[in-house]
Design brief:
By secondary structure, this protein is mostly beta strands. It has a four-stranded antiparallel beta sheet with strand order 1-2-3-4, with no helix packed on it. A hairpin with a 2-residue loop joins strand 2 and strand 3.
Length: 64
């Protein structure tokens, strides 16, 4: 294993993420990365397993 690049413009954050599970809505604290104005979940919504940072899973960032 070797490091190819270190991203210095990424911030790790913890968000309260809401997902639809069939007819129910559930929320849980989720580890995410804030990158280029998007929030990218780093855990799967269904069972919490770690996943690779994938911009296809990105959500729009917001200011609370």
């Amino acid at each position: 294993m070797k490091i190819l690049k270190v991203f210095d413009d990424v911030e790790l954050i913890l968000v309260d993420l809401e997902v639809n599970m069939g007819t129910e809505k559930r929320s849980a604290p989720t580890l995410c990365a804030r990158y280029q104005g998007k929030i990218i979940p780093l855990n799967s919504a269904h069972d919490g397993r770690p996943i690779l940072m994938n911009e296809n899973n990105a959500l729009d960032d917001f200011e609370s």
